[in-house]
Amino acid sequence: MKVGDKVKIIGSHTIDGKHRIGLIGEILDIDWRDETCFVLYPKGQAWVKRTDLEVIESINSLHPEATICGWVARTQNGTLGLCRIKPERRCGDWWISIAPEDSAIYRLPHELFPDITWESDPLQVEITIRPKKQC
């Protein structure tokens, strides 16, 4: 269970003792010390034991992580880029021999990957993008 998950209250263990079985809400906070979640539902909110909640929709299912595979290479003038396809070294620059829509090159901050030089081979990388965890 995570902050942002949509949950259904399936048990009656709430801090204030009121029964809210069947209500659907969203987890706004989690207290790991006593295993309770602060749930906001249409007509109120309550701290509920985690064991009395059923996750209906997880924040991760709404925003799954994505992985991009590619190659990092540096040009002869020092520009660092991420290429979706392995580039070939040609006349001081990198060349990609496929259709333009698949050959995107993204400029990266110069200080990343200081060991990659024009003389070194492109480095195969994997970038994972995931939703920011709520604090």
Question: What's the structural blueprint in terms of helices and strands?
Answer:
Blueprint (H helix, E strand, L loop, with lengths): L5 E4 L14 E8 L4 E6 L2 E6 L3 E5 L1 H4 L3 E9 L5 E4 L4 E3 L2 E3 L9 E4 L14 E7 L6
Antiparallel strand pairs: 1-2, 1-5, 2-3, 3-4, 6-7, 6-11, 7-10, 8-9
Keywords:
135 residues; mainly beta; five-stranded antiparallel beta sheet; four-stranded antiparallel beta sheet; 1 helix; 11 strands; 44% strand; rod-shaped
Structure description:
The protein contains one helix and eleven strands. The chain is mainly β and about 140 residues long. The longest helix has 4 residues. It is rod-shaped and about 75 Å long. It starts with 5 loop residues before the first strand and ends in a 6-residue tail after the last strand. The model has no long low-confidence stretch (mean pLDDT about 80).
Gist of the model:
The protein is an all-beta fold and 135 residues long. Helix content is 3%, strand content 44%.
Give me the number of helical elements: 1
Q: Flag low-confidence runs.
A: none
Strand content: 35-45%
Spatial strand order of the main sheet: 4-3-2-1-5
Structural class: mainly beta
Helix content range of the residues, please? under 10%
Distance between the termini: 14 Å
